[in-house]
Design a protein that fits this description.
The protein is α/β, with parallel strands linked by helices. It contains 18 helices and 25 strands.
Length: about 600
């Protein structure tokens, strides 16, 4: 039987049979940690008495808050710098930009490689036919120490883009159209392979844009078969080293084939709060905007800055509009400077920041305030993710055109700029922090009893669970107080929950970022287990690795009430209560072993 792209890559990095749904121990070619997660990775290593398997394959990247304008980030960065000096671990400091993009530009990753990072958008590696996975602090610590991680081989979905987009549609519009059709969980837990007549024309930047937002559809990774442009890019990055390509076998088996019609596609935009709530730009045209952000790992490439400069050149942003631009890497910054793009952007009135993630990672440029309406080229617009205002997601072209008009518009419909009249906006709530799993016990119970909380909203993301304002928190004792601090109606959950309680949740719980704190905060509060029909892929493995029982089961239509007592059998998956029973998924052996040990790194 033939193999899909993800199966081929994993096969090259494991000695086990690669079968969807089965566990494989996967060798990791490059293991990275960022400035917000790196300190916790090191602390996990030190606590477990573990060293570094191969410093030459291990690297810190400081991209969330380059410059350390926040004291928490500054402290974490210096902590990681010191550790790197002591161990020989690689370091890409605050001058270099987004770690995933650096890995591509520096040739650390090529087609068929494996890469893990504390960045939930590490799956941009799919753009060149490589495997990238965002993971939590314990996972990355294990990769640093052992050079490999356990991984459940995902099913693969073939996605076929049919037709040709309209002349004003860009790669961002294509991926927004994908999100509109597939939704927040349409690729949940799967690898996607992207095909279609337009695909071979997509350059590396276009593919990065599309692969990056696989996360927002629940995908493990969105993979492209490398074309000549990709191979040329990788060969140059690898300084002439021979680059091998790879492709799925003709008889590969796919879980499903999905066609997405992009014929005549027009510019698209995601409305605030949900990356998948996508409509044509024309449906919201005329909405006044206060600020525009162009950058992020999704749209911070040179091609994106060129697209914006082509529209902004010789013009000025509308009165009252703030235009913030952050290149993905230092190399992109230097290329934009050499081509005159930086001058064009600054002449138009833009603020250009040093390379990095900027606003979507709570960085020093790109956040917005209550009532502020922002057009962003990022990949997420969850409430509170980029500040307390409203965030629309769009292409660099739409963002630049809107900056000129002072209202949402497309590049072919730019109007005379008018002063922005700020509508009264809605603020979003505050954040959260993290905790540490319980210490080892001789034997942990596999029959869990407790009263339940019913929090049944679908697609509760990690910013709702543990807001990015508190990413720099590393003391577990401080974390539980922030649980659900950005989920409307549940901000007082830490005051109401009791140790031993169970939480019943909606589907795709924990979608979003790779932050471990969104798991650990429940352990701090003494929550005994989470039960949901499905979880974000990174969130699920973070919880498993922390030893927090996450059960896959659907209790949404069970008739349960808040405070009712239930019992979960982790071995059999049976969940029972007075007058009811359902069959959930039993723990796998890997999950049970980690749970009994008290966490992935516990001995």
């Amino acid at each position: 039987m033939g193999q899909t792209l993800i199966e081929k890559i994993i096969s090259r990095h494991t000695d086990r049979e690669v079968v969807p749904g089965k566990i494989a121990n996967v060798e990791i070619d490059v293991r990275a940690a960022r400035d917000f997660g790196g300190a916790n990775v090191v602390k996990n290593l030190q606590k477990a008495g573990l060293g570094i398997a191969d410093p030459g394959k291990t690297v810190f990247t400081f991209d969330c808050n380059p410059g350390g304008s926040d004291q928490g980030y500054a402290a974490n960065q210096q902590f990681c710098r010191t550790y790197a000096r002591e161990t020989g671990v690689g370091l890409r400091d605050i001058t270099q930009g987004i770690g995933t993009h650096i890995a591509l530009e520096d040739g650390l990753v090529g087609p068929g490689s494996t890469f893990v990072s504390t960045d939930s958008h590490a799956n941009i590696m799919g753009a060149i036919g490589a495997f990238g996975q965002g993971m939590g602090d314990q996972d990355i610590a294990a990769a640093f120490a052992q050079g490999q991680v356990w991984f459940k081989v995902p099913q693969t979905i073939k996605v076929i883009l049919t037709g040709r987009p309209g002349p004003r549609a860009r790669a961002k519009d294509i991926v927004l159209a994908m999100a509109r059709q597939l939704g927040a969980g349409g690729l949940l837990g799967c690898a996607a392979e992207i095909y279609g007549d337009i695909v071979d024309e997509l350059d590396v930047g276009d593919r990065i844009t599309i692969s990056s937002m696989g996360t927002e559809m629940g995908a493990i990774i969105a993979l492209f078969t490398p074309n000549d442009k990709v191979l040329e890019f990788c060969a140059e990055a690898a300084k002439g080293a021979e680059i091998e390509t790879l492709a799925a076998d003709p008889d590969a088996v796919y879980q499903e084939t999905i066609e997405i019609d992009i014929d005549g596609l027009e510019p698209m935009i995601a409305r605030p709060g949900h990356p998948e709530d996508v409509v044509p730009v024309t449906e919201v045209a005329g909405r006044p905007v206060d600020s525009v952000f162009i950058g992020s790992c999704t749209n911070g490439r040179l091609e994106d800055l060129r697209a914006a400069a082509d529209i902004l050149r010789g013009r000025k942003v509308a009165p009252g509009v703030v235009l913030k631009i952050v290149p993905a890497t230092r190399k992109v910054w230097e290329q934009a400077l050499a081509e005159g793009i930086v001058k064009d952007l600054m002449d138009a009135g833009a603020l250009i920041g040093n390379a990095g993630c900027a606003g979507c990672a709570a960085g020093q440029i790109g956040q917005n305030g209550p009532g502020e309406v922002t057009i962003s080229t990022g990949n997420r617009n969850f409430a509170g993710k980029q500040g307390k205002g409203e965030v629309y997601l769009a292409s660099p072209a739409t963002a630049a055109a809107s900056a000129l008009s002072g209202s949402i518009t497309t590049e072919d419909a730019i109007t005379d700029p008018v002063p922005v009249v700020r509508p009264e906006g809605k603020g979003t709530s505050e954040s959260q922090s993290v905790t540490e799993p319980e210490k080892d016990k001789p034997t942990k119970p596999t029959l869990l009893k407790g009263r339940v909380w019913l929090i049944t909203e679908a697609n509760i993301d990690t910013d709702m669970i543990f807001h990015n304002r508190h990413l720099a928190v590393t003391d577990p004792a401080e974390m539980g107080q922030y649980t659900f601090g950005n989920l409307p109606g549940w901000e007082d959950f830490p005051d109401r929950v009791q140790s031993g309680d169970l939480v019943v949740l909606g589907p795709n719980f924990g979608c979003g970022s790779s932050r471990q704190q969104a798991v650990d905060c429940f352990a701090t509060l003494g929550v005994r287990a989470l039960i949901a029909p499905s979880y974000g892929a990174i969130y699920e493995r973070n919880a498993i690795n922390a030893g927090l029982p996450v059960v896959i089961g659907d209790l949404l239509d069970s008739g349960l009430a808040d405070g009712q007592e239930i019992q979960i059998d982790l071995r059999s998956g049976e969940i029972t209560w007075d007058g009811g029973r359902i069959q959930a998924e039993p723990f796998s052996q890997v999950q049970m072993d980690i749970y009994q040990r008290g966490g992935l790194l516990a001995r």
